[in-house]
Amino acid sequence: MDADRFTSIFTSDKLAAIFPADRADRFFDALLGDSSEGAYDIALRYAGAREDELHFEFQLQERPGKCLSCSLTYGLPHVFSRHPVINISSVVKDIDHMLDGQGRCGDWRVEATREAGRKVHVIPLIIDLKPDGA
After folding, report:
1. Rounded CA gap, 21 and 113, in Å?
2. How far apart (Å, rounded) are the C-alpha atoms in residues 114 and 97?
3. I need a surface site. Which of 10, 26, 76, 129 has the fewest CB within 10 A?
4. Per-residue pLDDT tens for 44-102?
5. What's the domain range around 15?
6. Alpha helices, DSSP H only, in the chain?
């Protein structure tokens, strides 16, 4: 699949609409009982298409005065895949709707957390892409 045709669909603004910035606060409020205890903000970003897959990333950006490296981000893929506030199933349904005839979303998975930098960790979200009508 040609990644360029999806780049115009999955802009930062459109992804922020389906995964708003306040979701990190709601996640920490549910997880820790206080959103101010959260060490990072969460944003959904498009990372390109490869073969029959769409690649997205949950980017964890360290909050001022907090320590991202001190947080337990490596267990998060399992937590994210099941947590009702993160709600990946709903995110994938929204992405499927955004495709508007340029394919259909199939199964999805989250992969291991990786460090993109000292203050940014990334959790990949991979979605199988099927031809529209499949």
Report:
1. 20
2. 28
3. 26
4. 999 999 889 999 999 999 999 999 887 778 888 999 999 999 999 999 999 999 998 88
5. 3-130
6. 3-7, 12-18, 23-32, 76-82, 88-99
Place of tokens 């199988």: 128
SS3 134: coil
Residues 6+ apart with CB under 8 A from 94: 18
pTM summary value: 0.91
With CA atoms as reference, report the closest residue to 43 among 7, 9, 11, 6: 11
Q: Look at residue 1 and tell me whether its pLDDT is greater than 60.
A: no
Domain total in the chain: 1
Contact assessment for residue 36 and residue 24, using Cβ atoms and an 8 Å cutoff: no
Two structure tokens written together for 112: 């291991």
Cβ atoms of residues 39 and 72 within 8 Å: no
